[in-house]
Structure formats: C-alpha cells, structure tokens
Amino acid sequence: MKKFLINIITFIFISSGIWASADWSIGTAETVPENKIEIGLFQPLQYGYSKDIELSVYPLWMFLMPNLTLKKAWPDLGPVSFASEHTLYYPTPLLDVIAKEGAGGILPATSKVPHIFVFINGVYFTYEINSYLKITPSLFLYLSGNLGEKDFPTIDFMMAYHRTSVYHNNVSGRFGLDFDGNIIYNLDYNIDVDYFILNDAKDNWALEHSLMLSYRFTKGFRILAGYKYAISSVPYDKEKADSLFFPLIDFQWSVDF
Amino acid sequence: MKKYAFLICLFLLACDFFNTEFEDSEDAVLYEAGSKTAATQGPAALKVMNWNVKFGGARIDFFFDCHGDRVLMSESEVIENTDNIIDRINLENPDILIVQEIDTNSKRTAYVDQVEQILNNTQFNYAAYASQWKADYIPSDGIGRVNSGNAVFSRWPFLSAERIQLPLRTDQSSLDLYFYLKRNILKTKIDLGAGKNVYVVASHTSAYSTDGTKKNQIDIFKDELDKINNLSENLIAAADLNTIPPGSAKLSDFPDSVCTEEFLADDYTDEVKWLDDLYAAYTPAISLTDYGTTELQNQSYYTHTTDKNGFWNRKLDYIFTNMTLSGPGSVLQDTMSLSDHAPVMVTITVP
To answer: At the fourth CATH level, which superfamily is domain B22-349?
Structure first.
C-alpha cells in the first residue's frame, strides 16, 4: 500500500513537466483549450476539440452507460461568456445490470428496461468580476425517449432518485449557479448550487450544493476536497424532505495532447 | 479492488449509512387516531385478534416464498388489500388487535402507512409499532426502502410501549445481517380505565435460522412474559412464533415449501417441545386438547400456508394469557384470500 502511494505521488510530480496550463472549464462557459485534455477521478475526460468546442465523456461509465457531451462556446455577450452544452447518454445497459435477483439488485429482476436515450441541453453564462470571483448561472433541460416496453420502478434513494427520474417522466429541468475564484496563491474555490425540477406525479424537487477547495500543485495537477449536500422531496416521505451530506475528494490533471 | 470495495462496505456499515440498526431497548412508535371512538371503561372482557397480515400482500405470489416473482405492489393494490383486511377486522370487531408484518414506509407497499390506514378505518384509537426490518435502501432483489414490523392496536391509550431487541441470527455474514430483519418484542401496557390495566406483548420470531436463534428468541419472549406475570399483572401475549404446537401430527415436508436454493422452514421435527413451557405457564387461545394430536384434529387450527391454492397446513400463530378465557379461541380460516396467515381470535375475561 505504501509503495503504491509513493508511486502515485512520484508519478504526479515527476511527470508534471508534461502537464499543460489548465483552465478547468467544468461548470463554466469556458471550454478546454484546443488539443488539451482535462481529466479527474470523478470528473469526465474533457478534450479541447477546437478553440470553441469541447468534447467530454465519463470513461469509466462508457461500457455501462455510453455517454458523450459537446460544449460549444459562442461569441461573448458583452462581458459575459456564453456556451451551450449538449449531452446524449444511454443508461439501459446499467439499468439491466442492476435489475437482478439477490445482492446488488437495485431493481427487481423482473424489470423491463427499454432502450432509454437521455438528451440534455443547457446553457452557461459566465461573468468574471475579477480573479477572485467568477459567477456562472446555468439552465438545463433533460429529455428522455424510450424504445420498447417499460416496466421498472424508480430508484428511491437520495441523489439517485432525482438524477434518474427523467427515465420515467421524460422531462425535467435544472437551474445552476456556480461561484469560482482564487483565494490565495494556488488555492481556488468552487461553490455550486443546482436546483432540479422533476416532472413526476408528486412535483418532487431536489437541491444539490457543493463546496470544493482545490490546490494547484503544478500547472497541470490539482487536488480538490470539499463536500456535497443534497436535499430533496422524496416519494417515501410526503411531509418533509430528506437530505444527504458527504465529503468529496478528487484529483484532476490537464495535459497537452 | 475487491479489498477496497470491502473496506468501503465496512465503512458504510460501521456508520449505519442505511439506517438499519436498533437499540437494545427503545420506545415504540405511537399512533393516535384522528377521530376517536368511545371505549368502555374497565371492560369485563377483551376480544383479542392476532394476525400476520403479510404487509397487505394478500395472495400475490412474491419472490421470497418461491411461488412467484413479485417484489413490489402498486399503491392501489396495497390500499385495496389492506381495506379487505380492515373489512374483516371490522366484522370481528376486536378490542385489541396484534399484527405482524405490517408496513409503515416500504417501497414494496408503495409507502402506504398501513398502521395509519387500519387505525383510521377501524374502531381503534391508539396503536404502537415496533419495526423489525428497517433500511433506507435494501440493495437486493429490488426491495429498496423498507420499514415493517409488529403493531398493537387498542381502543384504550397506552401507558407504555417498548421495543425490545431480540438476538440476531449468527448464521449470516455481516453484510447480510446488516440488511436483514431484526426481530423484536413489542411490550405495551394499556390503561383500560376504571383502574384496570393489561400488558399486551407481541412478537414475530425468526422463520429461518440454523443456529438456534429461533429457540433463543422464543425463550426470551417467555422470559419477558414471566417478568410481567410475576408482578401479578394482567397479560396477553400474541405472536407469530414460526414454530408448531406440541402434539402437531405433521412435522415436515409441507406441500407449499417450493423453494429449492435456500434453507427451508419446512422441518419442525426438532422443535416439537419448544413451546412446552409457554403452554405450561399460560392459557393458550387454542388449548392443546382442542388442537389434538392427529392431522384431522390439528387442521381446524392451522394458520399458515404460502400456497393460495392449497389449505392451511401448519399452526404458527398464537395468543396466550394469564387471565381466564371467556370461551374457546378460534382460527378464522375463511381468510385465505387476505394473507398467508389466518387470524387467531379469543375473548378473555378481565378481572
């Protein structure tokens, strides 16, 4: 275990020379610069396809939930940067895997999971006040379409319910607000708030908030630590919302391709 | 990778991430009807009903008894099935009702609070509930969230209501045990008015155990009754004990046992004396004389079968008291369509 950690740390620092200057575009109207890649353990792999187009995927999910996101930066609206983002993913293989008897059966084995295609379209507006504060409101529309017979229940667990509700209700929405900036030296912050409107029978809603501090060890590597807090109305409690709080940590790299 | 997954599981279980744990002793959950029905103060007799209601699953064939593959019910199914149970309760009009396998917030029962539904549609004014299976999420077989347990319904208010944890099985892995049922004793004391009180003690002991846990739980159940009896208090005990009475003629190879992959609760040969002490110490609703020693005699008092097309084939459900019976108890065997257990009824004279 100790040797494994030493190898990881050595890899990070010795190889730092090849890492490019990073822009860390996630959650803002900015795109990854052309021919650069950003990746994190829990963040998608983002590739700067051109100076104003970014492609991203979640590589670890590709076999169970094929996904692709295209982000396009549009001409600035005065002092405000503007980008649109378009995601297509196919969760059917993942749902098929978790519909099983016995341990790991999140869904009943008798579930009938159709071909589900989820199409998410959204826009970011980023206004940079100074290096200490960048504000990004965002707005997203989730659409889903099914092919085949559908008979499987909702996943009634915090975080999972509102993120999978669109499979059943075909439409949902999300409003976001991000605050990013530098605190001091190589220490940055991100505060993120997302409000989900679910188009289900009981008008459920969800609010996610995260606060992350990131420290740039090199130009191309940073470690992030913080927390996520989610609160939402839930099918299993008609009177009050449920909530969940958990710590977050991530390692992110940026590299010239 | 497996090692890390195991460590993550261990961490989540250690902090009770899925909220499945109970204290050794804790207050039961109390309910009160929105509108109350007047109750006779200091009644001379109590009509008592004990029923494992199978969470309103009626005769739907669920995956766990291997007759079918159903996991979840729709809200309309749950409400309709529970209404049918309520109709039968109202027909019998008991003063005290003890139930096992009643759900208050489970995915399988569309999150219908069945304690509330029964309370609001019967003559009962109060209920006490003790969960025996609780988890924010059961990641197995698509079960999801569950909260199911035992309840006591009463026309009169509770003076106390306690959930007492019973020993857990020792023949399961830590992970299985974490998400598995935690059996309990629900010990309540009811103020009957006019200076009369009665303890009503409910339980539902283990159905599956290969390690003696079921016997241990039955012994602890009796110990709890003895504590009350030794105080010379009035006592009614009702339970699904998941074992058969002394004198049962059929002990194994029940025709409705169709599961093949797991341990079957299908052979009671070693359990024939497990209830001897209970029968010796307390008056049963169905006496051993009435129950008899032949299958023909026994079958009038059978209370359980998992086969909706068959007939009741074993007695698992009981009422005991330290008071006097007003008459012999009965098993309402015409309830085949309502649950996989038939209710036991008896009227008890209150001194």
So the answer is: Endonuclease/exonuclease/phosphatase (3.60.10.10)
Write phi, then psi, for B247 (nearest 5 degrees). 90, 0
| pLDDT single digits (tens) B78-96 | 999 999 999 999 999 999 9
CATH code of the domain containing A34: 2.40.160
- This complex has an ipTM of 0.86
- Largest pairwise CA distance in chain A: 57
Q: Is residue B204 less than 8 Å (CB to CB) from chain A? A: no
pLDDT in tens, B156-202: 999 999 999 999 988 888 898 999 999 999 999 999 999 999 999 99
Are A236 and B71 an interchain contact pair (Cβ–Cβ within 8 Å)? no
Q: Which domain holds residue A48?
A: 2-256
The CA distance from B12 to A107, in Å, is 21
Q: Decide if B302 contacts B295 (C-beta within 8 A).
A: no
Contact assessment for residue B57 and residue B81, using Cβ atoms and an 8 Å cutoff: yes
Burial class (CB in 10 A: 0-12, 13-18, 19+), B195: exposed
Q: Which residues in chain A are closer than 8 Å to B105, comparing Cβ atoms?
A: 236-237
pTM to 2 decimals? 0.89
**Alpha helices by DSSP H, chain B:** 2-14, 75-92, 114-119, 174-179, 213-230, 276-281, 288-291, 295-298
Please choose, from the candidates A90, A85, A98, the residue with its C-alpha nearest in 3D space to the C-alpha of residue A126. Answer: A85
CA distance A253 to chain B (A): 23
Amino acid found at A12 = I
